[in-house]
Structure formats: structure tokens, C-alpha cells
Amino acid sequence: MDRLEGLPFQQGQHICAVYDTRDEQLAVAAAYLADGLRIGERCLYATDSLPGLADFRSRLRALGVDAGNEERRRALVLLTSEQAHLRDGQFDCERMLRMLNDAVEEALNDGFVGLRTCGDMSWLIDKPPGSHQVVEYEAVLNQFFLNVRGLGMCQYDRRRLPAGLLDHAGLVAHSTIVVDGAHQENPYYDVESDGRAERRHPAAIDETLGKLRHQD
Question: Which of the two residues, 173 and 71, has the higher pLDDT score?
Fold first, then answer.
């Protein structure tokens, strides 16, 4: 997968990418961020481990991107989950929002056209301290990205994360969705959701994703 199907991603979008395998997760992240690098955005990627970052560099190289050079010129910023979502060993919504806001400002000050982010959310599997804030955080990010020169993708593992979390933090809280390498406007996005309560019973995730795969 060297590209994602659908219209080009745009600044202001908040994207949920649901995946079934590690290979799919890496392929989607690499294609999405390679596009950002090509158009002059600073790209930030966060995943669970240093080996995961090494795998991502390899995926970028397979797409013709010199990951090392992009890192040296600070066009590409690679972080582990502990350096991003779980700094100090816990998740804090306000801290993450400050970090993202600062990252957007720094990208613009450094001459980039904006900030493109991608984070694998598998750190939620272990339910670290503060993880209960993630649904509210995802809801707030929709408005955040609408107000800055940036866009963000959150990647959710369909196999290992609970269906309720996939529904409320993923489907309900993102305006755009990627399934099977194709992205589209998310018909399950709840623009009124503030993330503080479960707005509906958790969807049967397989049925929901099946409908998305067959959207015209």
C-alpha cells in the first residue's frame, strides 16, 4: 500500500484509522505521513516502542522517503508512546493538547506549512493511569484541528481494543475514517458528542466496519 484511496487529506481533519494487522497499521501510517512530507508539513508519528519506530522508518524507505534525512531536518519527528501520550507514566488530556498546540506553532515557526500527526493508540490496551480521559480527548481534537494548520490520525487495533472503546473513542469522535486503506467522511461521527458520556450502546464493531467497507 503506497497510497490511501480517496480524496487527499486536508488540514482540519481528525481521522480514525481502524486496522486488523500490524502490517496494515504501518502501511497506512507510512502512506499518510509520506504525503504530508511531500507537501511540506512537519510529520509527527508516535507508536508503542523503539522497534516499532524502526519498522516505520523501513516502511517510509520502501515508499522512497529518506527517513533519516527527514528526521535530521526535523520534518519527521518520531516518538514512542511513553514520550508522547504517556509522558510521566500517565495520560493527561490537557498536557497532550498543550503539546500538540506547541508542536503546530513550532512547525509553522520553522517554515513548514503545518503539522500532520499520527498516533497508534495501542497503549490503551494496558489501561494506564488517565486512560479514562481518552474519549473526551478525542472529541476535543475535532475542534482543535479545525482551528489550527494541522491534521491528525489516530490508529485503533480492531482485534485488541474493546468494542465500546472503538465505538466511543474511534467512530463517534472522528470526522474522517480509514478502513481497508480507503478514507471517507465518517457517517458515525457525532458532532454533538463532548466525550463525557456514552451517547449510545457500543456498536457491534464488525457489523459497523462492514457497512463502512461497502459505502459508495
Answer: 71
